[in-house]
Fold this sequence. Notes:
The protein has 135 residues and is an alpha+beta fold. The chain is built from three helices and six strands, in the order ββααββββα. Strands 1-2-6-5-4-3 form a six-stranded mixed beta sheet. The longest helix has 17 residues, at 38-54.
Amino acid sequence: MAPQGYVQRFTGGIQVRRAIYLREREWAVLIDPTLVDLRARARLESLMQHYCDHGPIDMNEKMFKFLEHFKAERRQVRLEEFKAGAVRLFGFGALHAKTASFFVTGMDAAKKQAKADRTLLDSAGKEAIRLSQIV
């Protein structure tokens, strides 16, 4: 069962069992064609499905990238991002229901610089710390 507020949106094949969970608010932005370019959305969906089917193997830093370790409350999570076009999805990996899972805890739908927006990254990190205590 998914943590409260999260919905499993992608799942892997038989050999590599992985899942990706998003909150409704990130999903609503991702599927809104007025907020996210359709090509970027299609690319992100393709990247997330590849991650579920094969793991991060064969994914370069323009697709899936480690950002930093986020530390708080004596816990630490490894923040990573999927990116396509002007969209970034921030999150972390954890074992959930015997499945290697990636939880999207933040989003930047209009990246304007090479690095992730610090405010959005901090918010995603705080949510990742909170969620890591439950999964």
